Amino acid sequence: MDHAVSLAHSAQCLKKAIPMMVKYRMPVTPINYAIWYCYVQGSKPALNAELDDVIAQQQTCTQNKAKEIFDKHLSEDDLVFFQEMADRFHGTMEQVQQDISITLGHSKSFTTSLVDSQNELANLANVNSFNEILGCVERLTDESVAMQDYAREFQTKLAVAYNEIKDLKEALNLSKEAADTDPLTGFFNRRKFDDDIQLFCQTYSEQADEGVLAVLIMFDIDHFKRFNDDFGHQKGDEVLKLVAKKVSQNMTDTLNVYRYGGEEFCITGYFTSINDIMKFADKIRLDIASLAVRKKDDINSKRAISASFGLAILRPFTKGAVLIERADRALYIAKTHGRNRIEIAPDI
Ligand SMILES: Nc1nc2c(ncn2[C@@H]2O[C@H](COP(=O)(O)OP(=O)(O)OP(=O)(O)O)[C@@H](O)[C@H]2O)c(=O)[nH]1
Predict the structure, then answer these.
(1) Which of 10, 111, 188, 297 lies in disulfide reach of 192, CB 3.0 to 4.6 Å?
(2) pLDDT in tens, 248-288
(3) What digits encode the pLDDT tens for the residues 55-76?
(4) Does some domain include residue 194?
(5) What residue numbers bound the domain in which 217 lies?
(6) What distance in angstroms lies between residue 214's CA and the mean position of ligand 1's atoms?
(7) Which residues, at least 6 apart from 181, have a Cβ–Cβ distance to it below 8 Å?
(8) CB of 77 closer than 6 A to ligand 1?
(9) Residue where a domain stops, chosen among 123, 154, 180
(10) 16 and 111: one domain?
(11) How many A from CA of 199 to the centre of ligand 1?
(12) Has the ipTM of the complex gone over 0.85?
């Protein structure tokens, strides 16, 4: 790929590439960035054709497929280029914006001091060649005002460019957010969970604080298949949304909630005691159990909703996979012991 392109051209390509990633719900990874940038640049028709095919079939492009396309048509150099580009744009514009503000400030104070001098001179009746000096200062003042006008105009143009870059950055953040979010529930999605869980375990291991417990709470709506079969998939989606609302109402800043699978959710976070964890999980369990739905045209069709919970307290230096396995096992026991209940994984 030709990297010797102007900043303006790169900005144009980025501006077109980001909405593509948003549209097809692809996370902003360097690889996705690279293939879409190349796509909108149009420099590799074979890449465009392949990406068009994948999108036509799947309405998105999976990480694996994106990597495959990248490996086939692009190189590692392209990747480095993309990783650096967005930051470079923003950094450069920020710096220039600062410089011009300083220049404008200087030119303003220069004008002010010239005006002051001019006034002072005007008040001095006994100065030799008074009119010459005054004329000279007047010219300098005019030049300074012109310089200030020029700087202001330059700043306006720069502000426009700066805002465009800012918009680009925001679009990038939004597309990242969209790529991490489950659209039905608004929770983080499985992809984000897979990214986060290892970091969650690692951070706790490195900064383990006496008296702080890190926990993974897994829960799953009971008999959801039966519900879907009896009420239809659409009503099932409605239940997922209702459950999500109840869960959201209990969330705090120290907790993260994810849609782990179809009707299965995970919460990770920190508590100070097992008692607090149990109280928290039980509140959610009861909130979900307070829900009931019925068919529009059948008053006798009322069906209660419930969920089962499996908790696993993190032991330092445990891998994410082990924590998940323990919570999953506890959830399985909650299911087999009658559902609508909470089980804690044994601390072995
Ligand atoms: N409506 C709806 N259903 C979904 C969605 N995702 C998964 N499901 C359904 O969720 C059901 C899950 O069924 P199972 O895994 O057998 O579990 P279950 O019926 O809840 O039974 P237990 O977990 O043992 O209580 C399946 O019928 C899936 O089709 C979704 O997004 N919307």
Answers:
(1) 188
(2) 999 999 899 999 999 999 999 999 999 999 999 999 999 99
(3) 999 888 998 899 999 999 988 8
(4) yes
(5) 190-344
(6) 28
(7) 187, 188, 189, 192
(8) no
(9) 180
(10) yes
(11) 29
(12) yes
